[in-house]
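Notebook entry, structure prediction.
Reason for the run: the old model in the group folder had no record of what sequence produced it. Starting over properly, with the input documented here first.
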Amino acid sequence: MHRLETSLQMARRHVLENELRIADQEAVLARLKLCRAPALEEVAEEMLRLFRRIQGQARDHLRRLERDESANSS
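New structure, fully documented this time:
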């Protein structure tokens, strides 16, 4: 964990960081398509799918933490 962040803060940070990774990977893929590098495009596309799958898991985790916090504060 960074500093003294809570699990909820860390989960939010992960979601935001993953969004940046996805945007970066989309830019890499776009550049590779311009260069017409099919083998590298394939690798970049697979990495993008992986990043998106990880982001889905991170969002699910964040929703669970937010739901738990909401239930605990009621």
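Summary: The chain has two helices and no strands.
The old model has been moved to the deprecated folder.
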